[in-house]
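Problem: given the chain below (380 residues), write out its structure.
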Amino acid sequence: MRTMLFKAQHRMWWVPMLAGLVLLGACSSGVEKPKPVPLGPSPQGLAIKRSWSLAFGEVQFPLRTVSVGSDIALATSQGLVAVVDARTGQEIWRASVGSSVEAGVGFDGNYVAVVGQGGALQVFKAGRQVWRADLGTSVATPPLVAGNRVFVLGTDRTVAAWDAATGALLWQQARPGDPLVLKQPGLLAALGDTLIVGQGAKLLGMNPLSGTVRWEQSVASSRGTNEVEKLMDIPSGMARSGQQVCVRAYQHAVACVDSAKPSLVWSKPSNGFSGLAGDADSVFGVDGQGVVTAYRRNSGDIQWSSNTLRYRQLTGPVVVGRSVVVGDSEGNVHLLAKTDGTPLARLKTDGSAIAAVPVLVGQTLVVITQRGGVFGFVPE
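Solution.
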């Protein structure tokens, strides 16, 4: 067993619920929270059928579904981890973490990384645990496995890297931060040979070999009057096109950065809590009330906004073909037209909340619910 302690920092943690700060405030003040907009008849703009499903286990932690080729990595709150063939729903292998799971999953086609109870980073290959490291801190962001390395972002904003095969600690970097931070998945992603990390309102480009900062760019400025309103962080989920990276600054803005210069391309006010998705022309986001908005990638101008799913506690979006896909708290998956937000299709699962942003694997849209249902949908 390998042991590594992140630098301890005393912080307050603000834990956002799916509905966001607006609904939390309404509940705490005794005001009835807004009711979801009625859905109406199921739209018939796309023909999609369920190809397979499996019961895997409850998901009550920040799950990121990651696919490589036709394979997808999964984990459950109870500590199961598995790799599944997304074409058929068949398990390739499964293993036990030995405790509950706090954050996951990282996957590169060979190694699967999760963070277990008490901050235990565990790495598996072909159904066997190959190493673990005790982090000594809380982790909400799923690990990233890339370039034969495993990267972890702690809630204290420390970033560290390990050798994926041996578990050798390669580097760790701690940066000063705000006294109040989010305990929800932050941004930790790969962009070419650069590690992209969200640190407060700053987007960082780091050297994955050494942990040194190559560049940093602020994406928003605080407009709050108290610690909660001033709180800024960058949640998981970026919309990349070439060297342009678009992200959300929690409850403050949506912004795009040219990572090649680097420079801020644009930043627009937006009170939201989840990450973004996009294509070469547009960037899509969901605000705290469930309004889905499309922005022009080159300018940030709004192309369209849809209120049809308001107050439905939506996941972040994913772009699938000609549609933008989001899940809701009642187990529905909604497909909206990229061009104007028109509802195209609605998919049903098991009635429990969608636990992670749906992911497209080949021709299969994979959806995971909090109850532990895993569903594969394909075009008819």
